[in-house]
Amino acid sequence: MNSSTILLLLLSLLVAAGVSFYQYLYKVKSKSRVTLLLAFLRFFSIFGLLLLLINPIISRKTVETIKTPLPIVIDNSASIKDLKADKSAQALFDKLKDNSALADKFEVQTYQFDTDFFPVDTIDFKGKQSNIDVVAKNLQNIYKNQSFPTVLISDGNQTSGDDYVFAFNAQNKVFPLVVGDTTTYLDIKVSQLNVNKYAFHKNKFPVEVFLNYAGTKSINASFKITQGATVLNQQTVAFSPNKKSATLSVLLPAESVGLQLLKATITSKEQEKNTYNNTKNFAVEVIDQKTEVALIAATAHPDLGAMKRSIETNPQRKVTILKPNDINALTDYNVLILYQPTAEFKSVFEKNINAKVNVWIITGTDTDFNFLNQNQSAFSFKMSGQKENYLASFDSQFNLFALDNIGFEQFPPLENLYGTITAKVNTNTLLSSTIRNIATNQPLLTFSENNGSRTAYLFGENSWKWRAENYLNKKNFTDFDIFIDKTIQYLASNNSRKSLVVGHERFYNSGEAIEITAQYFNKNYELDEKARLTISVTNTKTKAIKNYDLLKSTNSFQVNLDGLAAGNYSFIVKELNSNSSYSGKFEVLDFDIEKQFVNPDWSKLNQLATQTSGKAYLPGQVEDLIKQLLADESYKAVQKTIVKKSPLIDWIWLLLLIVVSLGSEWFIRKYNGML
Fold first, then answer.
1. pLDDT per residue over 178-227, tens digit each?
2. Are residues 555 and 466 in the same domain?
3. 667 and 589, same structural domain?
4. Can you name the residues that pair with 245 across neighbouring β-strands?
5. Judgement on whether residues 585 and 603 belong to the same structural domain of the protein
6. Contacts of range 325-328, beta carbons closer than 8 Å, 24 or more positions apart
7. Per 3-state DSSP, what percentage of the chain is helix, strand, and coil (rounded to 5)?
8. Where in the sequence is the domain holding 658, given as residue range(s)?
9. Cα–Cα distance for residue pair 324/375, rounded to 1 Å
């Protein structure tokens, strides 16, 4: 408090004392206890009121001790139990978190992780995946701009996420406690298998297999791929202390249409501790044929090559570039792309009256629009001879198929003749056109459907520039190629639109996310966000049924069926308001990634410790770890002085005491007949 406040307080004290003396003690001959009490109450009331009027600021100093945080993180994944290290890990965790010396020096905080990272709840070592990378990211978010050590109790075997060695902040020491038997056992395993989900009937599809070996002697192993009792491929693989891995590339025949279940197995005459990782199941869906696309053009243009490359990034598509007069049987193709039609295309239009192949018409500055007016009925064209550049505007309400805006508004303009394009039938527009950012209210890319036949229209040439622009922005062609692929996919199907569209895979690996998505469209084929969708999943062997609700996401409904055991399942998705339904099947393949390990990954955890200037320890060295943490002088508690200032007027209890004092004075005066 400053000097002026102190002076006011002294003055208040004198005023309160003077008033109470004058009212109760001045000229009073005999001073009884009641008179003295009343004088005190009057003094307190006046002094309290004056205090509130002056409202001095009261300062209080407190000293707070801030300890360095010590997160103790335990691996809760199933691999800990598979390595028979669950009891050891739990004992280490309990010993560290209950250590009183550590608690005196550090702010001990406990966490666990498997697929995700969270505070310790129930440690049961049943996690389906282990992601050590998520530990690093979460600790950095929790303890921003702080220096702290971390104790990581784990086997170091990561099954998901990015490489964790360099994910941790190098300025914060990590002390791994490596659990599990570090003794090296002989082990051969199928560590990874790469295969496309789809293959074409009567073709051969590639399978890439990565094999690993742990051991101290040379052995020969037998590798084979089987389908049921049939051996599709078999070969011998040699391993030695100097050759501990092998990569095999195998071509397998796709003889039968549909889902094909296969098994890759490696065996040897040697005794192994873990044989679960010797086998890996996988599946391939064999498709009966490719989508054949005829790209018909009378003149050469860069759009043709770009379109062909874009479509054929999907191995299910094959594009043949033809002149209008070179094409014979239209029924050999699933989709016709007519690039800038002119009178030369007359025979193509006439043949397609009977063939009814879905068409994509792309116009440009060389298009004969009078010819188009006579040979198609979806649009009327009134075009001038003047050329114009048209920019794209994405319509987020488009619902023929799911597609994100890949930046169409930033793409270079397409060139077309200037004029009026009028729709004569119902159309669904994905891209509208603008001229110098002024809307023309005319389509740029639109779709129509009539009697089961589908047609797409792109009003402009130079779409090759879109693909190039996509590469400049993203360093790949992926977004543009997906856009083209979805357009071709829509045209390749003659099925009439369904109100309930469900997306799912034919097979999943156990432990993976099992997601099923659905979209429900109303009578106007608009996405109904108020739909009520449920799914009933049945295990075809046990007949056990599970029911779920599908939850709304950005542009669809979805459900996550994680936790299903390996086996075959059938399901039914229903929309409760309309009774629409969809039936399907999928299979969960028997594959537990957490059972692939024989030893903890000591070398990687030791590398993590070195990277962060920490040290890796074995379970028997936990006392050494505790001593190092206690002896480390870089982690000291900090004392912080905190000054808290509060105005006296905020003291509610002072106001209450003044009220009590005034009330007591009145009551005593009333009781003694002094009023």
1. 998 777 778 899 988 998 877 877 788 899 999 999 888 999 999 999 99
2. no
3. no
4. 212
5. no
6. 327/294, 327/296, 327/351
7. 30, 40, 35
8. 3-62+643-671
9. 15
CATH number where 398 lies: 3.40.50.880
Output the pLDDT for position 593.
72
> What count of other Cβ atoms lies within 10 Å of the Cβ of residue 61?
8
The predicted model scores a pTM of 0.53
Q: What is the pLDDT of residue 263?
A: 92
Q: Does 166 reside within a domain?
A: yes
Q: Which tokens belong to 382? A: 């009134």
What's the number of domains the chain is made of? 5
Enumerate residues 6+ apart whose C-beta is below 8 A from 241: 215, 216, 217, 218
Handedness of CA 644, 649, 652, 655 (dihedral sign): positive
Q: What is the CA radius of gyration of the chain?
A: 39
Residue 462: inside a domain = yes
End-to-end CA distance of the chain: 40
**313 and 420 fall within a common domain:** yes
- Tally of residues, the chain: 675
State pLDDT tens for residues 550-609: 998 877 899 998 778 888 999 999 999 888 899 988 888 877 777 778 788 898 999 999
Can you read off the two tokens belonging to residue 105?
């020096």
Confirm if 533 and 556 have CB atoms less than 8 A apart: no
Buried b (16+ CB within 10 A) or exposed e, 91-111: ebbeebbebeebeebbebbbb
What are the pLDDT digits (tens) for 350-364?
999 888 899 999 999
pLDDT at 152: 95
Examine the domain organization and report whether 113 and 32 are in the same domain: no
Quick one: pLDDT at residue 380?
93
Q: Which two tokens stand for residue 558?
A: 């979805």
Task: Looking at the structure, tell me whether residues 283 and 330 fall in a common domain.
Answer: no
Query: Which residues in the chain show pLDDT less than 70?
Result: 1-2, 27-31, 63, 289, 494-498, 523-526, 639, 648, 675
Indicate if 433 and 486 belong to the same structural domain: yes
In a domain, 620, yes or no: yes
